[in-house]
């Protein structure tokens, strides 16, 4: 695994003072005179930085990874740096313990995935009903017995390395008369019969994310779900993610929000230089769980917010129950309030599925600008295209349609399309700019750009469009290049700031 890179600024090299974990390397600087080639995973200040070092430290440290010791004095420059990087003070007496116990949680490469629902196996002993609901869930109904015993298991074992911690999150629904428990069994490496250790998680423990903290040698882990009682049990998804043991989800400082129905959304907030605008970026469809666009947004130098979700196969276009949508709205408004920014100091953006999130929640916030690459607005129409226009191209769209409107017929298609436009048409876009790059032969939502123009009736709204030949996924790089160039342009022209290099 890639080593954790630590930067230490001070008058004494910690390599000769503290013991480092094997998976970390410490780079000592007595004087910092230039930007690093890439940000460090952890940064420690062991003396008060000089004014000319502040910009270099700002580039060297990622948000939530900066620590200052007792030797660092509080002044205007240091306070700004700690605020902009979400930094914290650490007692000198705690440094050794932190390096040995906590530094491991700042590993550079996050990872998260969902177990393939089609690899879920139902116990042969179960005699009740079994119904597969697309790629969304498996519904089991009947008598599960009077004692907990295995009812389903996942065929794909996952590797867990020594010293690694894995977060598990189970999405499910059940009748009150059923009880469940999750079991994780780790085998000795190279075998499928010799058990090394087990983790047992009760139903009460599964109300929260549970962890497999492995201090044993590397070994594959097999996961199964036990049940007892009578009624219906819906198994929706099992997620596994590299854990930071409470230091953030996916990225250090990453926030997780969850509804009463166990549905998640993730936000990563970086205060940047604390100056407007706040750039909000919605992740696109992705089966690999986590945030999208981190490097792109960080390079712009502004405060930014990454929003991501992990429902269905690769996302559900940020739509859901009233509780779910209110959770996202409140989160965005909360980060705006932390910065003290108003809606005209915010930019919403996204690519493909992310454009829908930007448009949908843009109706609530009405930001200064919306930057959209390969826009999708008619999600019902996207699903309808799966039959003849794009067979097998995006089957998840059918799961989205059925999940949100309970059916996959044309009535549901029209309802889902109207769900967006009814909201869009009630918003006042008079102070907003729409900057859109679209595929001219888009096979997902061919009319999205034209429909946006048709529905924008507000006085003062501005629209900039660029069409690129091809279907939805034919020339993503051209879309991204224009997307970034327009971001830099609007930052320069509307906020008098240049993107950082």
In this structure, how is the largest beta sheet organized? 11 strands, antiparallel
Q: Which structural class should the secondary elements be placed in?
A: alpha/beta
Oligomer: single chain
Uncertain regions: pLDDT < 50 for 5+ in a row? none
| Percent helix | 10-25%
Radius of gyration from the CA trace? 25 Å
β-strand amount? 25-35%
Count of strand segments = 24
Q: Could you give the distance between the termini?
A: 28 Å
| Average pLDDT, all residues | 96
**Shape, please?**
flat
Distinct helical segment count: 11
Notes on the structure:
This protein is of the alpha/beta class and 501 residues long. The protein has helices at 54-60, 76-84, 95-101, 294-300, 322-339, 353-365, 379-384, 396-405, 410-425, 448-455, 476-495, and strands at residues 4-9, 24-29, 42-45, 66-68, 88-89, 112-114, 120-122, 129-133, 137-143, 149-154, 158-160, 165-174, 178-187, 195-202, 210-213, 219-242, 255-258, 264-270, 278-282, 304-308, 346-351, 369-373, 433-439, 462-468. It has eleven helices and 24 strands. The chain starts with a strand and ends in a 6-residue tail after the last helix. The mean pLDDT is 96.
Structure at a glance:
By secondary structure, the protein is an alpha/beta fold. Helix content is 24%, strand content 30%.
């Amino acid at each position: 695994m890639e080593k954790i890179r630590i930067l230490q600024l001070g008058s004494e090299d910690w390599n000769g003072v503290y013991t480092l974990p094997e998976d970390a390397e410490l780079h000592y600087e007595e004087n910092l005179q230039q930007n690093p080639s890439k940000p460090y995973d952890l940064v420690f200040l062991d003396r008060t930085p000089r004014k000319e070092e502040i910009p270099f430290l700002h580039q060297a440290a990622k948000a939530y990874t900066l620590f200052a010791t007792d030797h660092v004095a509080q002044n205007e420059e240091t306070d700004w740096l700690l605020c902009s990087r979400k930094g914290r003070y650490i007692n000198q007496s705690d440094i050794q313990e932190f390096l040995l116990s906590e530094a491991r949680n700042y590993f550079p490469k996050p990872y998260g995935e969902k177990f393939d629902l089609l690899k879920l196996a139902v116990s042969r002993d179960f005699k009740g009903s079994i119904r597969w609901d697309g790629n969304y869930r498996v519904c089991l109904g009947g008598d599960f017995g009077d004692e907990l015993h295995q009812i389903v298991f996942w065929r794909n074992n996952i590797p867990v390395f020594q010293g690694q911690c894995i977060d598990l999150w189970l999405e499910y629904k059940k009748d009150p008369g059923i009880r469940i428990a999750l079991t994780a069994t780790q085998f000795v490496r190279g075998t499928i019969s010799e058990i090394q250790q087990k983790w047992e998680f009760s139903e009460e423990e599964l109300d929260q994310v549970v962890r497999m903290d492995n201090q044993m040698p590397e070994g594959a882990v097999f996961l199964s779900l036990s049940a007892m009682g009578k009624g219906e049990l819906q198994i929706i998804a099992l997620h596994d993610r590299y854990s930071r043991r409470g230091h953030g989800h996916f990225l250090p400082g990453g926030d997780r929000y969850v509804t009463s129905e166990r549905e998640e959304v993730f936000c990563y907030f970086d205060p940047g230089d604390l100056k407007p605008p706040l750039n909000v970026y919605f992740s696109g469809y992705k089966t690999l769980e986590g945030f999208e666009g981190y490097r792109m947004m960080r390079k712009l130098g502004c405060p930014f917010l990454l929003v991501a979700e992990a429902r269905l196969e690769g996302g559900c276009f940020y739509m859901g129950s009233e509780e779910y949508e209110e959770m996202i709205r409140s989160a965005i408004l909360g980060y705006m309030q932390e910065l003290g920014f108003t809606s005209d100091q915010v930019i919403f953006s996204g690519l493909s599925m992310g454009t829908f999130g930007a448009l949908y929640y843009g109706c609530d916030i009405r930001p200064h600008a919306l930057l959209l690459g390969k826009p999708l607005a008619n999600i019902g129409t996207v699903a309808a295209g799966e039959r003849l226009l794009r067979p097998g191209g995006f089957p998840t769209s059918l799961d989205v349609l059925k999940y949100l409107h309970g059916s996959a017929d044309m009535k549901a298609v029209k309802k889902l399309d109207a769900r967006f436009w009814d909201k869009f048409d009630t918003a006042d876009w008079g102070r907003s700019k729409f900057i859109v790059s679209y595929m001219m032969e888009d096979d997902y939502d061919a009319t999205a750009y034209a429909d946006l123009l048709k529905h924008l009736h507000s006085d003062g709204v501005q629209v900039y469009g660029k069409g690129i030949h091809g279907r939805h996924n034919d020339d993503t790089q051209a879309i991204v290049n224009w997307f970034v160039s327009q971001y830099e342009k609007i930052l320069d022209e509307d906020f008098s700031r240049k993107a950082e290099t």
